[in-house]
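Reply to dn_fold:

You asked what the input looked like. This is it:
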Amino acid sequence: MTAPAPQGSEPQPMPHPNDDPDFAAARQAKADYEAAVGQARKLTGVGALSLLRQAETLEAAHTTYAEAVQGAWDRVIERRKGRYEHLQAQLPMGPAVPSDATPADRAALMAAFQSQHDRATATDRDGRAKMLDQADRFGDEHARRAAFTAILDRGEMDTLQNRSDRYGGVLDQISEMRDLQNEGGHVARGFAHKTFRLEPAPAEVAQMPMLREAAETQMQSWRQHGYRV
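and this is what came back:
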């Protein structure tokens, strides 16, 4: 199981599936399940388990396996979500309002951003690029965030790519966010399909109703013949 991150720590990038503890947990769950299935069948083969007991053992093993894999997958999703939200919060988008701002300060900051955002959305692509350059040059954070927000909302990535000297890190963040939204990216998606796809329950499990009925019939026969069971 993945160790919980210390409270307040920064969510880390998702590792390669070969190095991801939750992918490893899912692989181990499958290995443990396959071992349990093999052991139950071996014991049945030498008469140490009845067919009914074998089916019950296999059903329990499959349930344990499925729960372990689902738990590992849930942790992967939660970590992706946490990382995405962390990256999203780092983007220079929207109004920069401190969490401890007074209501009056909050209103003023929101109004300042909205004014600049209206300006950014009213102009064209070139105008937004110029607005971003001017905001960077003069350190106008409201204008910068407004221009950046409008640019990103419209998918004008070339504007940022043409300014990779200033926005290279931001572009990397956006790329990582897209991967996180897309099941972790091409590589992670392929590994996940293989790692988290559940094996079906063993065929013996489907025979349990019949085996239980047969066992009950046998018990009733023994009782009728005076055997204490």
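The mean pLDDT is 90.
Hope that clears it up.
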